[in-house]
Specification:
binds manganese (II) ion, 14% strand, TIM Barrel, DNA polymerase, domain 1, binds adenosine monophosphate
Length: 285
């Protein structure tokens, strides 16, 4: 099964429309697809329609920003009902601090010499309520501060760097509760990307499981081969389903294109076997 269960459109910090993503996913052989924009559901109707037109199975998705003991963690929800009011209202509350954070980020970057940082980031933001670090990163590349967005993050936009602004997202338990309440499966996104110690990682996964989380991304655009093996082992140890995800954002930025990651290793249970997804996948097939 070529499943790709995590990517972004212009409704958050990707650059392509949901229709263009659907066409690209189908051209790359994706059979089961999910659009998982950050903290909003605005692209799902178009993605679902276009997936059907391309003959792909589709599950509604979202990627929720969480703060866990001071660290930003991303939790993907798969197979959610996008009309579930508590999820919609919860996501609106998560989005509400972004504009103020962007203004503060712009001040910090302008102090370094970046020109019109806020207006330029907004020019890149397809959805003004979802302005984020990726939009600023594209501005810094344009203005010659670094050769690519990855280098911009490293030099300017991560904790300890001059353009980083601390922000409080929602609680882990809250994000999982919204996802489960909307009938979905909660998945820890790209667990290899968090800068936390081994013990902290085990605590995160334990807290996530206690909250009702059921899956982790084993294959991710952020994971190398060693991390795929590490997270396959942890999925088995914790009894989590395993997800497969490119986390695709843009043709020139993302390390893995839609549907082009490694396959899940043997010995893990694919997340599309979860009953929550099974019923939705089947009724869309
Ligand atoms: P935000 O939600 O505004 O804090 O932005 C988070 C987004 O920044 C992530 O979803 C990624 O798209 C992007 N991002 C974070 N770290 C990196 C990195 N090292 N390189 C490239 N993009 C990154
Ligand atoms: Mn992103
Ligand atoms: Mn993420
Ligand atoms: Mn993502």
């Amino acid at each position: 099964m070529n499943a790709d269960l995590h990517c972004h459109s212009c409704h958050s910090d990707g650059v392509l429309s949901p229709a263009a993503l659907a066409a690209r996913a189908a051209a790359n052989g994706v059979e089961l697809w999910s659009l998982t924009d950050h903290d909003n559901l605005g692209g799902l109707d178009e993605a679902r329609e276009q997936a059907r037109a391309q003959g792909m199975r589709f599950v509604d998705g979202v990627e929720i920003s969480v703060t866990w003991h001071g660290t930003t963690i991303h939790v993907v929800g798969l197979g959610i009902d996008p009309r579930h009011a508590p999820l919609e209202q919860g996501l609106a509350s998560v989005r509400s601090g972004r504009d103020e954070r962007a203004l503060r980020m712009a001040d910090a970057l302008e102090a370094l010499g970046v020109r019109d940082a806020y207006a330029n980031a907004m020019r890149h933001a397809g959805n003004p309520s979802l302005v984020g670090r990726s939009h600023f990163a594209r501005v810094l590349v344009e203005q010659g501060y670094a050769p690519d967005v990855h280098a911009v993050f490293h030099d300017y936009l991560v904790r300890g760097r001059p353009g980083y602004i601390e922000h409080q997202w929602t609680a882990l338990e809250q994000a999982v509760a919204w996802i489960r309440g909307a009938g979905g499966v909660a998945v820890v996104a790209h667990p290899g990307r968090y800068r936390i110690s081994g013990d902290q990682l085990l605590r995160l996964l334990g807290d996530f499981r206690d909250a009702g989380g059921q899956a982790i991304e084993v294959v991710s655009g952020s994971h190398g081969e060693a991390e795929v093996r590490q997270f396959a082992r942890l999925a088995r140890d914790f009894g989590f389903y395993a997800s497969r995800a490119s986390d695709f954002h843009a043709p020139d930025e993302s390390p893995i294109d839609l549907g082009r990651g490694a396959h899940l290793p043997v010995g893990v249970e694919p997340v599309w076997h979860a009953p929550e997804l099974g019923s939705r996948v089947a009724c869309l097939a």
